Write the structure tokens for this entry.
Amino acid sequence: MARWAPDTRQRLRSAALELFAERGFQATTVPEIVERAGVTRRTFFRHFSDKREVFFGDDEIPALAARMLAEAPAGVPPLTLVAAGLRTLAAERFEPQRTEMRAARRVIEAEPALRERDLRKQADLHAAVEAGFVARGEDPLVAETVAGITVTWVQTALRAWLADPAAAPLTEHLDAALERMRVALAP
Amino acid sequence: MARWAPDTRQRLRSAALELFAERGFQATTVPEIVERAGVTRRTFFRHFSDKREVFFGDDEIPALAARMLAEAPAGVPPLTLVAAGLRTLAAERFEPQRTEMRAARRVIEAEPALRERDLRKQADLHAAVEAGFVARGEDPLVAETVAGITVTWVQTALRAWLADPAAAPLTEHLDAALERMRVALAP
């Protein structure tokens, strides 16, 4: 990403999301997106392989999760590590993108092919977290458990945050999502 | 399923799993499967649409989960309902199929196309549980949380059970998997 001006990428995303919201995902073409963004077709394809890719700029999240787990000091309890990682992602990746993510969410929910891809992203995050904890020496079943909890934690927090009319910060929704899991699992 | 003799279906599954284990999934053909099972090609296609379907005889699990949630009395806490549902599935569906499931698991893990389908099954169970709790009047975020917990619970319990050299009953692995989630989420 560092090779291209981030504002161009951002402009393309915003233009695409506007058009998807106006006309639907299927009916929107790449020429229409580049026209609205005021860039060339070639520029579009430097940033995205197709219009579906516009939604999945956060494909690097599994890699970020893997790096955080690899770099964290030994002996930190898994939940503490996951919480710290999610707070960092919330501040650096999600919070600045709330408007675009809200628009993207609506398009994804209306489009089965995109929902499929969204599931694949969740599975990639699950795999990265699981592998990261295995590499830290956790029991494989504990690693899989923590990975499942992480995905549910992120998904439910993001959903609440994107739907929140009061626009409370994502970190508050992360706290609430963790509490919901604890309540659901209480004996 | 009631229309066809269950032992034919079972024989086809066993033959297919033997062949997949011997030759690999890709290299095994439907004619080889029917020859080993001693049935006609036509019989195969009455039970399965293709060789991949052989793995996914439990496709009815999301529908079973939906029915259990719809029929359960009001006011039962979500975790109690999920636990009861999983115990029923363990006794009626999984425990009698342990040998086949162990064989199937090894083939699925070696075959990306089957892992993809396995993820789809998990997503279907997630959707069924979520919708079932929403229909029972739960808060949608609680429903999604419980669905996420259910999938992690089933997956980690099945994995431990299928790998267990002592062959302890699945119900014991369900208890252990629940405890792992509670420990992972402990403050």
